[in-house]
Amino acid sequence: MTASKRFTWRKGAVFLSAVVLLALADPRPATFVAGCGLVLLAWLLRIWAFGHLEKNEVMVTTGPYAHTRNPAYLGSFLALVGVSLGAGNAATVQGRLVWGLAALLALVFFLFYLPRKFRREYRRLRRLFGDEQVDRHAANVPDFLPRLTPWRSGDDRRFSWRRVAENHEWPWGAVLALVMVLVWTAPLWSPLYGLFDRG
Known about the structure:
Elements: H1 9-24, H2 29-50, H3 71-87, H4 93-129, H5 131-140, H6 161-166, H7 170-184, H8 186-189
Helix pairs in contact: 2-3, 2-7, 3-4, 3-7, 4-5
């Protein structure tokens, strides 16, 4: 079993956090619709990224990789923000608690998850493609928050739907859609719904 397939305490913590966030969901129409829009944007960004990516084969500098060195991680973060926005609200204690939990998760994402991923990912890229290519990309493209204009690396790689399929990105659309359905229907199924606003 590879490291990516193995269940770890980190994956367990992520799963538990997601369950708690969904169980606490107290959606309102306006923020839910905005959250759905952000989740859709996140998935489209990931599709764009994986349509350019041939992992371990090519040092990718085109498409979203010309704007940020880690577009898939940016997409994952935007999905977290979208789900959290849709699951909470400013009117109730529970809705604000959802947003507070989401802020804590975002802090963990930036302080622990991303630095660890960056260290491992950049070591792997240097091993595969050499310091020169990695350093050139790093000198022109930011780690996470994207630059507005694309960096022209000279590579002419184009988006490919085949790569999207090979990178197994399609199921994430169904997963994200299911998550948003669970958020919207939380008042019907969650035993925690309204818990912090009773009495």
